[in-house]
Each structure stands twice: as structure tokens, then as C-alpha cells.
Design goal:
single chain, alpha+beta, Immunoglobulin-like, Cytochrome Bc1 Complex, Chain D, domain 2, 3 domains, five-stranded mixed β-sheet, 12 strands, about 15% strand, binds dinuclear copper ion
Length: about 375
């Protein structure tokens, strides 16, 4: 009789464990595992899921069994048996979870060490990730260039344009993401890679991943960063490319950056200067460049308004066209004041070529002429 009961315990236990193993091996609750790190994270999760299923079956099975087996029979008015304590049982239900927690702790720590390994790898790709309200941008390393016309100074300028709003990564190569923020805390998150890392202003954080599947997914922001936070998760894509496609992409990006940098008065350069070099965004709104200041007049539609000012001859410097109005507003801002804005708030020293070079000024004018 006693032997029989233990045989039943073992049989039921074996069935529960079998169900747990099957669930752990087959049920998939996460999106596709597209990085080597995702595989490690998922195997840890599935291991925990299998254990949880076994415990769930034991607890819920025990409850259901007891409800049926020990229910009150008709005419039974007695109290239940007065049972107090069972040392063997208590030791068992403390010892087994302790072992489980200990095993899980070691296993998770191993997975953590695998996915958070800052050791430089031989063939790693380094990509800058910059969070800003409310989009990501990605900074790529420059390829080698044997062109003798590319001076170190020009190369420095080219570097500023190795930026894209899409994250391209090569298949099967370790990626080191160097994550920064331009404003508030964002969180760089790619669910398919199981990688999440805060972007904190004032420091560079790192994340590591090796894409193992070709595809295209969203780069998500996982930190409430302002009114545009929700939208920030559906702006930038991550695209996994073959190595050859990635090389081709970098070559194209570099060629474009070189072209931009070689033409220092181009509108594209002006945009970069407005965004990065001069603090226009502290006071002006300009949607195209993501400027959100609200101290001075908005620059949205400035080219159209500049044409009207040019026709009326207001605030012109160095010409009679729309460009002359924009140039005048920068180098001699008090010449014409937009109604409602006081004199002297706009910096007065941009007419000084040591503060703003002729190239920079023209690039900014050319850029603002495209803002209709
Ligand atoms: Cu950036 Cu949320």
C-alpha cells in the first residue's frame, strides 16, 4: 500500500516534469531571436518557464486533488483533523526552491556575462547611437580613403556626415553600440535582439550584439522621454545586411559625406551647423532640424517670409533678395525686428568672421532658403 503511493507520486511527478520540458522546448512567447544574445536570453527564459510549469502543475494539481479527495461528504459534521507542522515536508519545500534559485542565479549570471562582455572582439563593428527627442541617429566609422586630396581637416569634416537615421548592421559580426543622449534619458531597445540599454546624457554607454538573422525591425525607445516618446519607437529601423551589402552601404554613405564636406556652403552643411555648431535651437523652432526653442521667432517657413521682406526692402544685407534678408537677420539682427521680439536678444556677434565664418554663414543662409 505504502509503496504504491510513492509509485504514484513518482509517476505524477514524471508526467509534470515531462509537460514542463515540452512547454519549455516548444512554447515561444518572444519575437524572432535575431541575435546570438537573444538565443542565450531565450534559453534562460525557457528554462525558467519549464520550472515554473512544473511548480504550477504541482501546486494547482495539489489544490484540485485536495478539493476532490478531501471534500465534505453528505452527513459529515466533524471538524478537519488537527494537523500542526510536518518537519520533513517543510525542509523539502524550503530546500527544493533554494536549489532552484541557486541554479537559476548561476545560470543567469553566466548569460549576463555572455551578453555584457565589453572585451574588444577581433572583427567587431563600432556604431554610435545617439538618442534625441524624439528619434535615434546612428554614427558610422569612416572607411579608409587613399585619395591624396582628403586632408586630415577634410576628413574631420566628412566624419560629421557619417550619420544615418537607419541602423545598418552586418550579419554574424559582433556590434559594439556606443550609446549617447543629446537631451534626456532614452533607452535603446531592439526586442528582436533582446538588447536594452539606457542612453544617458553626459556619458557613453555600451551594448553588444551579434545579428544572426537577416531582417528589418524597429529600434524602440524604452524610456519615457517626453511627449514624443511613443512615436520614437516607430521612426528608426534596424536592418541586418550581408557583409558585402554592409560594405557597399558604408561606401555609399562615405561618398555622400565626402561630397557634402567638399562643398562647405551647401544647404546640408548649413543644417548640420545649425543643429550642432551654433546654438540656434536654444531660441528658435525649426521642425526640419528638430529645433524646439521658443524665445525667438520660429524659423519654419522662413524662406517664404524672407521673400516678402526682400520685396519690401526690410533688413537686407549684401543684396536685395531673400538671401539678403536671412543674412541680415544673422549678422545685423537689429536692422529689422520681427514684431513682438525685442532688440538685443539675438547674438550680436555673428557678423564677426571669427565667430561665424563666411562659409558657415553662407551654408546656413543656403539651408534656410530651403525652409518654405
Ligand atoms: Cu526617447 Cu522615449
Amino acid at each position: 500500500m505504502k509503496l504504491n503511493r510513492y509509485a504514484i507520486y513518482i509517476l505524477v511527478g514524471a508526467i509534470f516534469i515531462a509537460i514542463g520540458v515540452i512547454v519549455g522546448l516548444t512554447v515561444r512567447v518572444f519575437p524572432v531571436a535575431a541575435s546570438a544574445e537573444a538565443v542565450a536570453v531565450d534559453s534562460l527564459f525557457n528554462f525558467m518557464l519549464a520550472i515554473a510549469v512544473v511548480i504550477f502543475l504541482i501546486v494547482e494539481g495539489g489544490i484540485i486533488y485536495s478539493i476532490i479527495r478531501f471534500r465534505r461528504r453528505p452527513g459529515d459534521e466533524t471538524d478537519g483533523a488537527p494537523i500542526h507542522g510536518n518537519t520533513a515536508l517543510e525542509i523539502t519545500w524550503t530546500a527544493i526552491p533554494a536549489v532552484i534559485v541557486f541554479v537559476l542565479a548561476i545560470y543567469s549570471y553566466q548569460v549576463y556575462l555572455t551578453i555584457r562582455n565589453p572585451e574588444p572582439k577581433d572583427n567587431e563593428v563600432r556604431i554610435g547611437v545617439i538618442g534625441q527627442q524624439f528619434a535615434w541617429k546612428f554614427v558610422y566609422e569612416m572607411p579608409e580613403d587613399n585619395d591624396p586630396n582628403v586632408t586630415p581637416e577634410l576628413r574631420e569634416r566628412i566624419k560629421q556626415y557619417m550619420i544615418d537615421s537607419t541602423l545598418y548592421v552586418p550579419l554574424n559580426r559582433p556590434v559594439r553600440a556606443l550609446i549617447e543622449s543629446q537631451d534626456v534619458i532614452h533607452s535603446f531597445y531592439i526586442p528582436e535582439f533582446r538588447i536594452k540599454q539606457d542612453a544617458t546624457p553626459g556619458r557613453v554607454s555600451e551594448a553588444y550584439f551579434t545579428p544572426i538573422e537577416k531582417g528589418e525591425w524597429w529600434v524602440v525607445c524604452a524610456e519615457l522621454c517626453g511627449v514624443g516618446h511613443a512615436a520614437m519607437s516607430q521612426i528608426n529601423r534596424v536592418v541586418v545586411l550581408e557583409q558585402s551589402e554592409f560594405d557597399q552601404y558604408i561606401a555609399q554613405l562615405y561618398a555622400k559625406a565626402k561630397e557634402t564636406a567638399s562643398d562647405p556652403r551647401s544647404p546640408e552643411v548649413g543644417k548640420q551647423l545649425i543643429m550642432n555648431k551654433y546654438a540656434c535651437g536654444a531660441c528658435h523652432i525649426l521642425d526640419d532640424a528638430g529645433l524646439v526653442g521658443n524665445i525667438g521667432p520660429s524659423l519654419n517657413g522662413i524662406a517664404t517670409r524672407a521673400e516678402g521682406h526682400a520685396e519690401r526692402g526690410e533688413g537686407l544685407v549684401g543684396g536685395t533678395d531673400a538671401a539678403a534678408y536671412i543674412r541680415g537677420s544673422i549678422v545685423n539682427p537689429n536692422l529689422y525686428l520681427v514684431p513682438g521680439y525685442a532688440a538685443g536678444i539675438m547674438p550680436q556677434n555673428y557678423g564677426n568672421p571669427n565667430v561665424m565664418s563666411e562659409d558657415d554663414l553662407e551654408a546656413i543662409v543656403n539651408y534656410l532658403l530651403t525652409i518654405r
